[in-house]
Amino acid sequence: GWAAMDPSLEALVDATRGSSPGACGPSLHPRSVAACVGALLPQSSHSKSNSNSNSNSPSKLTKLLAETIRTKRADAAKEAALLAARTKTDPVEPEPFLPLLVLVGATTDGLEVTAMQLSKPQGGDEEVHCPFGGISVVSSVCCCRGAGTMEGGKHTDVDVDINGDVDVDVVEEKLEWAMDRLRSQVGLIAPESEEPTAIVTYGTIATQLKVATKLKAILAGYGKEARNKKNDNDKHDDDDDDDWDGWDQDIPLLSTHESCTSVGLAVLAAASHSRVKLVVSVKGTDGKHRPKPKPAVDVKSVAACQVAVSFNYFGGEEGKWTEPKTVFDFDRRVPAGPYRVEFSAAECAAHVKCARSGKASNDFREIGDETVLMDMAKSLEGARGIPEREEAALRLRFRVLQRTTRDDEENGRWIRIGDDMSPLTMEHSQKDEGESGRDHLVACESAVMEISLSPVGLITTALTTNGETIVQATKSARNSKLLKYAGIFGSLLFVGGFLVKSFVEERVFERDTQRVLAYYKHVAPNSFHDGDERHARYMVWKYKGKKDALWRRLEAKYGFPVKHAWEWDDDEEGEREAKGGEEEEETEDLDGSDGSGEL
Q1: Integer Cα distance of 129 and 386 in angstroms
Q2: Residue 48: CB atoms within 10 Å
Q3: How far is residue 59 from each of residues 63, 66, 68, 100, 307, measured CA to CA in Å?
Q4: How many Å apart are CA 101 and CA 60, to the nearest integer?
Q5: Percent helix, strand, coil in the chain (nearest 5)?
């Protein structure tokens, strides 16, 4: 784990890649995984009957795992059969048992304790170099010697004696701490796993003996703790002992030969370069089965380091960096990411303004109320906030941090990876050749950085920006807003015009229909077309756009001009008034008598 720092891995990859463009990169794997593969590698032994013939026998670890898997599988099948008999249902196939291994290794560089699960046991006719096709790392707890810190703090976790071997006292102290941490992590990450099937040590023989002695004492302590807990439950009549994870002195301890790690790494390298592989039958789209190679072992590792990010809105001044925000935590499955970090000049200016106005908390590191920050950032948008946004963007600094130990109190300090970055700045296109310093940098409005973690622990960053300065971004935003409102206004005019046109055409159509009906009523009363609304609507529709021709034809056919509906009503009222006046004139009594007067 301590060797999985980003600078070390990058240097190792660059050094081993070679000058050839097609050269294969290095095969990098955790030391514990290589030790596991080496411990599972079959043992080669010469046959007594024929000295020229070789036979491979399974290793002790492989035999123990195979026997445990058979036992667990039989117990699970028996329980499933009993459950099916009680419930009178078909037996359900139990889930495959995944044995848990704990590998412990101590060298002059440090101490490493790793838990991993094995899966995909392979038959005898398959690849014999890898008895298990899947290795999944659950957790890895490390403590190193000479761990550097960001501020140059302590440097020793595991030390060596004068003979160059591991110091027993320090190993005992750190091994118990590492086992406690690993035990708790396994309970959180893989609660379905029971106690480890075996604990395997690797390294030199002398180191393994010291580690094994300490492990026996630690496991005995776990067993004593379980017995005490059981006694307490018995006193309180509590039968719930499910909290015990089964870690005790009954767990087998296995040692390995000193070359176990190097041999396992050779097998992993051969598998990664397709020198050791399996040939399986895969069904194609045409229904035929064809042979296809696949890797002999599939390793799923976890992050042995913790990765975080930190911000500074004051040009990198010490003491004003934000608290590290964890991006990839310990035991995170790798590869991981990308993790997106969005930068905004308005938000940076809001951070600076809040800090200067005293609205920040924890020594300029966090904004107490996020709504205050967002409202202030929104108020700084537009042309009025250009100077403040430019200043904040040029002063923004960003850094990636990493640490290898989980001990927060002692050596859990962060180590900076690379130089501080300025994600909201870019070089001006009109830069002079003799220009130096930061005068040639211009501020950007926004940017996005993606952080990823490779399978071996390499940290990669990718910065993406549209290349617009703050002034250009403001103009683009203004133009976009104008185009937006212009588009909305044009859409309203377009749709509204169609609505108005449709309304007017409908009113004109109804008016002309009533005009035709009124014409037939007055010109040809009691005829076939008198009161026929459908015929009138058809005539208006037929002569749409050429109504004058319709009026002329009707006038030529009936000899009367085509009037509007209200014009016929006005004419009728005038005729009635004229007719009524004539009747009054006829009945007027000129002599003022009732008609019976004498001559």
Answers
A1: 65
A2: 6
A3: 6, 11, 14, 17, 38
A4: 14
A5: 40, 20, 35
* Residue that is written with structure tokens 């590290």 in the block: 324
The structure tokens listed for 327 are: 């991006």
Determine the Cα–Cα distance for residues 178 and 106; give it in Å rounded to an integer: 12
**Pairing relationship of beta strands 198-202 and 253-254 according to DSSP bridges:** parallel
β pairing state of 110-121 and 132-144: antiparallel
Single-letter code of the amino acid located at 319: G
- Alpha carbons within 13 A on the beta-carbon side of 581: 6
Q: C-alpha angle with apex 225: 219 to 227, nearest 5 degrees?
A: 105
* Alpha helices in 236-302, H assignment, sequence order: 260-272
Give pLDDT tens digits along the chain (599 positions). 556 667 777 776 766 665 455 555 567 888 889 999 999 888 765 444 444 444 568 888 988 998 988 888 888 888 888 888 888 888 788 888 888 999 998 877 778 899 999 988 876 555 567 888 889 999 888 876 644 333 333 333 444 443 445 555 566 678 888 888 888 888 888 877 768 889 999 988 888 888 898 899 888 888 888 777 766 665 555 554 455 556 877 889 999 998 898 888 888 888 777 776 666 666 777 777 776 666 778 888 888 888 999 999 888 888 888 888 999 988 888 888 899 999 988 888 888 887 777 654 444 344 445 777 788 888 877 777 778 888 888 889 999 998 877 765 445 578 888 889 988 888 766 554 444 445 677 888 888 999 998 888 888 899 888 777 776 666 666 677 778 888 888 888 888 888 898 888 888 888 888 888 888 888 888 888 888 888 888 888 888 888 888 888 888 888 888 888 777 766 666 566 555 555 555 554 545 555 444 43
d(CA 290, CA 4): 40
Length of the chain in terms of residues written: 599
* Rounded Cα distance, 302 and 112, in Å: 14
Copy the structure tokens of residue 284.
């194609």
List the one residue out of 425, 450, 449, 453 whose CA is nearest residue 439: 425
Q: What's 133-165 look like in SS3?
A: EEEEEEEEEEEECCCCCCCCCCCCCCCECCCCC
- Cα–Cα distance, 36 to 197 (Å, whole number): 13
